[in-house]
Specification:
With about 200 residues, the protein is of the alpha+beta class. The protein has three domains: about 100 residues; about 45 residues; about 55 residues, Head domain of nucleotide exchange factor GrpE (Nucleotide Exchange Factor Grpe, Chain A, domain 2). The chain has three helices and six strands, in the order αααββββββ. Strands 1-4-5 form a three-stranded antiparallel beta sheet. It has a three-stranded mixed beta sheet with strand order 2-6-3, with no helix packed on it. A hairpin with a 2-residue loop joins β4 and β5. The longest helix is centred in the N-terminal third of the chain and has 98 residues.
Length: about 200
């Protein structure tokens, strides 16, 4: 009898234990499902955040690329403008160095003409001839050092870029037509640019 009672008590205890564990297992399973759902939701949110951050980063990269291209374009424009300015300034400076005394030299040319005329009217035995010749030679030498050079006109073909026709004469021969037969006033180059056109007589 006692053994049967003990056996019944044990069976009752096992049932109680099973009943106690059953709801815990069920509740635990529900809790695990909730945790899994929450984890899934959180992972979705994380992925969405990552996607948003990635798209924002791409937009920023694109924006920075456009700004860089714009700045680079501005830099190239400014650099090319500066290079043009530098070349133009250097050319103007070189021209100023070469032709800075252009107006002064042009003003001296009539004096040079007068000395040459005076020398041409003097006889070989004139006592003043040697002095005038020395002055003329010195003046010509100084002006040549500054880039002055006479235009060879007599006997050359008439060139409107170098000569100024003051009068025309009939040509004595057919070959003389269109050539310079006399020079009224000498012309000059200054550093290979025409400073004064030669005034000439042309055969027609």
């Amino acid at each position: 009898m006692e053994q049967q009672e003990d056996k019944i008590k044990e069976e009752a205890k096992q049932e109680v234990v099973q009943e106690d564990h059953a709801p815990q297992t069920e509740n635990g399973a529900v809790a695990d499902d909730k945790d899994k759902k929450e984890d899934k939701q959180e992972s979705k949110k994380d992925r969405k955040k990552k996607c948003d951050k990635h798209s924002e980063a791409e937009e920023k990269v694109q924006e920075l690329g456009e700004k860089l291209a714009e700045v680079n374009d501005k830099y190239l424009r400014i650099y090319s403008e500066y290079e043009n300015y530098r070349k133009r300034t250097n050319a103007e400076k070189a021209d100023l160095i070469l032709n800075g005394g252009k107006d002064v030299i042009k003003a001296i040319l009539p004096v040079l003409d007068d000395l040459e005329r005076a020398l041409s009217t003097m006889g070989e035995d004139d006592s003043h001839r040697q002095g005038v010749q020395l002055i003329l030679n010195k003046l010509q030498q100084i002006l040549q050092q500054k880039g002055l050079k006479a235009i060879d006109a007599k006997g050359a073909k008439f060139d409107e870029n170098l000569h100024e026709a003051v009068t025309q004469f009939p040509a004595a021969e057919e070959s003389q037509k269109g050539t310079v037969i006399d020079v009224v006033e000498k012309g000059y180059f200054l550093n290979d640019k025409v400073l004064r056109y030669a005034k000439v007589v042309v055969a027609i």
